[in-house]
UniProtKB/TrEMBL annotation:
<feature type="domain" description="Cadherin">
    <location>
        <begin position="39"/>
        <end position="143"/>
    </location>
</feature>
<keyword id="KW-0130">Cell adhesion</keyword>
<keyword id="KW-0677">Repeat</keyword>
<dbReference type="InterPro" id="IPR050971">
    <property type="entry name" value="Cadherin-domain_protein"/>
</dbReference>
<feature type="domain" description="Cadherin">
    <location>
        <begin position="154"/>
        <end position="245"/>
    </location>
</feature>
<keyword id="KW-0812">Transmembrane</keyword>
<dbReference type="InterPro" id="IPR002126">
    <property type="entry name" value="Cadherin-like_dom"/>
</dbReference>
<keyword id="KW-0106">Calcium</keyword>
<dbReference type="GO" id="GO:0005509">
    <property type="term" value="F:calcium ion binding"/>
</dbReference>
<dbReference type="InterPro" id="IPR015919">
    <property type="entry name" value="Cadherin-like_sf"/>
</dbReference>
<keyword id="KW-1133">Transmembrane helix</keyword>
<protein>
    <submittedName>
        <fullName>FAT3 protein</fullName>
    </submittedName>
</protein>
<dbReference type="Pfam" id="PF00028">
    <property type="entry name" value="Cadherin"/>
</dbReference>
<dbReference type="GO" id="GO:0005886">
    <property type="term" value="C:plasma membrane"/>
</dbReference>
<dbReference type="GO" id="GO:0007156">
    <property type="term" value="P:homophilic cell adhesion via plasma membrane adhesion molecules"/>
</dbReference>
<dbReference type="InterPro" id="IPR020894">
    <property type="entry name" value="Cadherin_CS"/>
</dbReference>
<feature type="domain" description="Cadherin">
    <location>
        <begin position="4"/>
        <end position="38"/>
    </location>
</feature>
Length: 379
């Protein structure tokens, strides 16, 4: 307990008695009676041979139960095991290599490390660090090619995470890092540690081929990453049709069904080969396992087919479409919750271009805006 706060009252013997109170604060000053504590108590680490001088091997973690002026900053010292000065230990407790290790020279080092706190008198504790030197990488990393589809409103792409590169390495202790060629960093970024791809704002319509590579420190492997950006037109939203799927997650649809269903859907609804199918968005139906896919079809001449025409084609081809994935409903209007009776049901669709949904799998990523469907009864 670092302190007490007492309220003391004095009362006299008069009639009536009078009194007053005062607060007395008692602070308990800390004595440096706790030694630093290593977590865990002892350490094991590995380093591959031929790693450059200064390679980080281990981060020491130390805590102290004393107050802050009797605890950190800690002073770290290697007491034994570093007679040839193969290691350095920085003030933050990071153990680094001071030489280029060779597996044939030595396979193991045991260091005794001391941590000293900042109290007076100082308290110390010790830990042992076992460092194994392993052979350098013999396997190249392997990475899965990634194709990313981004759907956004005209000139209104806010940016964000659009996918993730999946890479592996058969060398157990290899640490993979990802890089992007510098000339593309004005539009995209790649997280060097986890391979997440970030698009910056303002992407134009078109196709982008990213020069991404993954490295294990010895081998560097290129990764095929292609980004397709499609900008929506306002006219599309007035001519959309929704297909509702049963029991499918967005990620499963993107990874397992989207390519096949797009091809089957094109065959079903396109009147001419030059017509264009636009998948605008996919979005889970709240409170269910259903999934809505919003699409429109643009004529070669530039206009869009009306929803009633598309629904007729979809109804005729529904059996073929369900060979790919089970369809729950084909929606032009979604007025099932309204009883409009003799009135007309009107539906409006709005797109939130700043609320992007990213559905990412190992091979395909689909980024689309969130949409809202509003329905009302009209006279």
């Amino acid at each position: 307990i670092s302190g007490y706060s007492l309220v003391v009252q004095a009362r006299d013997s008069g009639t009536p008695p009078l009194s007053s109170s005062v607060t007395v604060n008692v602070d308990i000053s800390d004595v440096n009676d706790n030694s630093p504590v290593f977590t865990p108590a002892n350490y094991t680490a590995v380093i591959q041979e031929n790693k450059p001088v200064g390679t980080s091997i281990l981060q020491l973690v130390v805590t102290d139960k004393d107050s802050f002026h009797n605890g950190p900053p800690f002073t770290f010292t290697i007491l034994t095991g570093n007679e040839e000065e193969e290691f350095t230990l920085d003030p933050n407790g990071v153990l680094r290599s001071a030489v280029i290790f060779k597996h044939m020279v030595s396979t193991e080092y045991v260091l005794c490390v001391q941590a000293k706190d900042s109290g007076k008198p100082q308290q110390v504790s010790h830990t042992y660090v076992q460092v194994r030197v392993i052979e350098e990488s013999i396997h190249k990393p392997t990475a899965i090619p990634l194709e990313i589809f981004i759907v956004t409103m005209e000139d209104d792409f806010p940016g964000g995470v659009i996918g993730k590169i999946h890479a592996t390495d058969q060398d157990v202790y290899d640490v993979l890092t990802y890089t992007l060629k510098s000339e593309q960093k004005s539009l995209f970024k790649v997280n060097s540690h986890d391979g997440k791809i970030i698009a910056l704002g303002g992407l134009d319509n078109g196709k982008y081929i990213l020069n991404v590579s993954v490295s294990d420190g010895r081998f560097q492997v290129p990764i095929d990453v292609v980004v397709h950006v499609e900008q929506l037109l306002q006219e599309m939203l007035q001519n959309t049709v929704t297909i509702r799927f049963e029991n499918v997650s967005p990620e499963d649809f993107v990874g397992l069904h989207m390519h096949g269903f797009r091809r089957t859907l094109r065959n079903a609804v396109l009147s001419q080969k030059q017509d264009s199918l636009h998948i605008i968005s996919i979005q889970p139906v709240a409170g269910s396992s259903q999934l809505d896919m919003l699409f429109a079809v643009q004529m070669h001449s530039g206009g869009f087919y009306k929803p009633a025409f598309l629904i007729q084609k979809l109804t005729n081809a529904r059996r073929h479409l369900e060979n790919v994935i089970r369809i729950s409903a084909i929606l032009e209007k979604n007025c099932s919750r309204l009883d409009c009776q003799e009135q007309h049901c009107e539906q409006s669709l709005s797109i939130d271009s700043h609320s992007l949904m990213t559905y990412s799998t190992a091979r395909i990523s689909f980024v689309c805006p969130r949409f809202y469907r509003n329905v009302r009864c009209m006279c």
